[in-house]
Amino acid sequence: MEAQSPSTISLESFTGKSVFITGVTGFVGKVLLEKVLRSVPSVERIYLLIRGNRRYPSAEERFQHEVATSSVFDVLKGEDESAFERLCQQKLRFVSGELTGERFGLSEAAFNELALDVDLVINAAASVNFREPLGDALAINALSLYNIIKLTQVRKTPVVHVSTCYVNGYHQGKIEESVSGPARAPIPKSAAGYYEVEPLIDRLQTRVESIVQDEPEPGDRTNALVEAGLSEADYYGWNDTYTFTKWIGEQLLMQHLQGQALTILRPSIVESSMSEPAPGWIEGVKVADAIIMAYARQKVTWFPGDPRAVIDIIPVDLVANSLVLAGAEALSEPPQHRIYQCSSSTCNPLSIKQVIDYVVQEGKANYQQYPNLFPMEPRRAFIMIPGWAFRIGVTGAYRLAVWKQRLLSGLGMSVSTAQLSNLDTMVKLAVTFSFYTRPSYRFSNEKLSELAARVGDQERSAFPVTPGALDWQHYFRRIHLPGLNRYALRPKAMRLNRAKVRASRSPVGAEL
Ligand SMILES: NC(=O)c1ccc[n+]([C@@H]2O[C@H](COP(=O)([O-])OP(=O)(O)OC[C@H]3O[C@@H](n4cnc5c(N)ncnc54)[C@H](OP(=O)(O)O)[C@@H]3O)[C@@H](O)[C@H]2O)c1
Questions:
Q1: Is the C-alpha dihedral spanning 498, 502, 505, 509 positive or negative?
Q2: What's the confidence (pLDDT) of residue 429?
Q3: Which stretch of 68-77, 382-391, 475-484 has the lowest confidence by average pLDDT?
Q4: pLDDT band at 3 (very low <50, low <70, confident <90, very high)
Q5: Cα-to-chain-centroid distance, residue 290
Q6: Which residues contact 175 (CB under 8 A, 6 or more apart)?
Q7: Residue 320 Ramachandran class (φ > 0 left, ψ -120 to 50 alpha, else beta)
Q8: Interval 374-422: pLDDT, tens
Q9: Which end of the chain is more exposed for a tag (fewer CB within 10 A), N or C?
Q10: In 257-346, alpha helices (H)
Q11: How close is the Cα of 281 to the center of ligand 1, in Å?
């Protein structure tokens, strides 16, 4: 019998549909919203869930001041900003809501009305803080999903959920686009394939409550909750609280959205865009960039990691495109659970050594072109050393420097803080990020590539999802570092001014 060829997917499935998106004040969400507004004109309405803040209490105000003003929309605004404003007026609907509040904090009537009008949910909101206190991480990355479940259950609305490749925790080797389990302590698995996490959530919440009761002092309480998250994560087989709670979130969705369309899209380390809306567009300092920046400022010369290992970096525009294609599929295909990994380590492997070489070479050759990134010529080397050598050498040197500083200041002698501060930066970055710089896994993205293959030629080239053909040297030296310098970092004068303002407000002074 002839094998049936898979059906084709088209962006036409968005025609007349209402899409509900969370997380648009963040990095991935902004790029997604821009792409949908610019390249998916058939979408009828886009609901944006945004929580108000002290300055801008409503979603709309916050959008106007913190999102619409972003350079991510420069291409869309083009010559005619009023056309962009009209487009926003026509397509966008604002929902002032807190992800973790019951029904997002909406009235029952408002929530039900929303549920009846939404055709597709794209949930990009999360706490991406690796060391979030356990209770907060659970609330944002797992428990908030009960609201998404409730919103979508009435009409069996398809859900596209942004997760992370690192839900695979301490597993090693080639990691497929499938349900992942704990790498260490066991958690029961259901016949349907997801892990039964609700008893685990109950236990974690009990632990949070007892810490809150036992630690009346807020600082101690936060530290205890951070440590609790990290130790629970490690016990079950994850590096940090973020990835552990994102994994729990995946299980909750799979459990409660049985019979409903659910696509879990797992990006790896998301970095600046390959080409859209502009090459190198990025917001904030991401995982790899914290280390690149510390090197550029000559604060880090040693870092624990394996230079030969393959690191997984994915440009943000490929993530946004993947979300759009996954949405098109979920809207048009029979309901099913799907998992895609938006990653590079199998289709176009990049070693840590390559990243270091490209950054160091570009810094040495052209540092003057990056005044916000490289305040001076980087003269020192950047060397990856094994974790054990880092622990003995750098952590030992740090302890010695702290001890020397205490001794000298105790004797009333002046001490130089530069060396201590550099060691402090190295140790802190290593504690947070070293898991990601000694990778022993590669994330498959074959299913995502198959999804792209089902889209027509024109749409496939307008919505690329895999970095198979990307020249990494070109990406780092011509796209990413210029992008970091231009979009993520402020000129030094601006940083100093902001620091002065902060210092005048804060009794403890300012940090640059
Ligand atoms: N960046 C990466 O390298 C990476 C890698 C893999 C996966 N991911 C996933 O990609 C998604 C987006 O990440 P990102 O890098 O764009 O993160 P981000 O820049 O920190 O943005 C997070 C977004 O979530 C929103 N949010 C958080 N808590 C909320 C709450 N309680 N109520 C309402 N909104 C809330 C934030 O809104 P506020 O502005 O109000 O805080 C913000 O819009 C996440 O699901 C993350 O797990 C990211």
A1: negative
A2: 81
A3: 382-391
A4: low
A5: 14
A6: 165, 168, 341, 441, 442, 443, 444
A7: alpha
A8: 999 999 888 888 877 777 767 777 777 777 777 767 767 665 677 777 7
A9: N
A10: 287-296, 316-332
A11: 17
* Chain position carrying tokens 């303002």: 501
- Between the CA of 25 and the centroid of ligand 1 the distance, in Å, is 8
Q: Which residue is it, tokens 């600046």? A: 272
Stated pTM of the model: 0.93
- Per the CB < 8 A criterion, the answer to whether 323 and 265 are in contact is yes
Task: Report which protein residue has its CA nearest ligand 1's atom 24.
Answer: 125
| d(CA 430, ligand 1 centre) in Å | 23
- The mean predicted confidence, pLDDT, of the chain is 91
Q: Return the amino acid letter for 381.
A: A
5-39: burial string, b at 16+ Cβ within 10 Å, e else:
eeeebbbebbeebbbbbbbbbbbbbbbbbbbbbeb
What is the Å distance from ligand 1's center to 151 Cα?
Answer: 20
Residue whose CA lies nearest to ligand 1 atom number 43? 23
Determine contact, residues 35/107, Cβ cutoff 8 Å: no
Strands (DSSP E) contained in 383-487 are 383-385, 441-443
How far, in Å, CA of 322 to CA of 162, rounded?
A: 10
Pairing of strands 310-311, 350-351: antiparallel
Taking alpha carbons only, the member of 38, 36, 39 closest to residue 18 is 36
CA of 124 to the centre of ligand 1 (A): 6
DSSP label at 66?
Answer: I
Calculate how far, in angstroms, residue 320's C-alpha sits from the geometric centre of ligand 1. 13
The model's pLDDT over 436-453, given as tens digits with 9 standing for 90+, comes to 888 899 999 999 999 999
Q: Whose CA is nearest to atom 36 of ligand 1?
A: 23
* Mean pLDDT calculated for residue range 179-191: 98
| One-letter amino acid of 330 | A
Copy the structure tokens of residue 379: 């003269």
pLDDT for 506 equals 32
